[in-house]
Amino acid sequence: MPPTHRVAFLGAGTVGAAAIRRLQNVPGLALSAALVRDLDVPRDLGTRPPRLTTDADAAIAGADVVVDVMGGVEVATELMARAAASGARLVSANKAALAERWDVWGPLVRAGRVGFEAAVMAGTPVVGPLAGALRGSSPIALHALLNGTCAYLIERLEAGTAFDVALAEAQRLGYAEADPALDVDGVDAAHKLTLLARMCALPELAWDEVRRDVRGVRGLGPALVADIAARGARVRLVASLWSDGARWRVAVRPVALPADHALVLARSGKNALLYRGDAVGEVVISGPGAGAEATASGVVADVLDAVAGRPGPVPPERSVPAPAEASAADDFEPIEVA
After folding, report:
1. What is the band of 336 on the pLDDT scale with cuts at 50, 70, 90?
2. Catalytic residue at 192?
């Protein structure tokens, strides 16, 4: 009989529960434990749930694969580092921890011990392509729509809804948190951009360097969006990696794009990645960037790779030189907001 791989979860919220349901009938897997804050909270964990515990050490003990879907930065990083020290493979949907604590995560990622496809664009594959097929080209630029909350808010502004009203709608519908700052101020997109830039060109990119040039959609209003639309353009919150002709630049900011731009034509509510490489030209990947089932799909794929012994995605061994010619898109018009 093939060995049974023990899989432990840090967190069993909506994403964790969806991944647990998808994994519980996979041959050769045993869902050993799930760390939760409250044992009494009702959860839909299917017919073969893992043992729930509030003891982190008990959750991790003996696991072959440990999955972080708990969020947060410091506690999650500490627990996953302890799991790695015990020999476990790691799977993480935690973009904030991966972005901000690269001092811990970087060596593990470079060793191929971490799967983190679900940390960027949920189950839509972008990390794998950047670490795989697209590495045959030298990167020229990368631009992406990475936050569904901001996309929804911009859609409502286009319909003439005031920003505060649109935000309240998003919160009521569950698209935005009670404290929406991470989404609305561009920090969530910046976390994801940090991971994409590391996999594409800058393996040692520091979070603080990305954080310096981040602006969200707060301050946009329907009148400004309508004025831009009257000129035949559309507003999008774009996360970018590009060359200014001397060095790589990274930024998250609202821009006006031509109505026929690939990032405008991406289906409503979808995330999208536009990659430009010297050999492949322009590649666009679009799909769901959030949602419990979509994110669980990415988590499950990484777990299956881990138990099969396939290494996780690794960044380039060294930084890729920036193109000598400026590669910022000529058709990106920065939007200044109050």
Report:
1. confident
2. yes
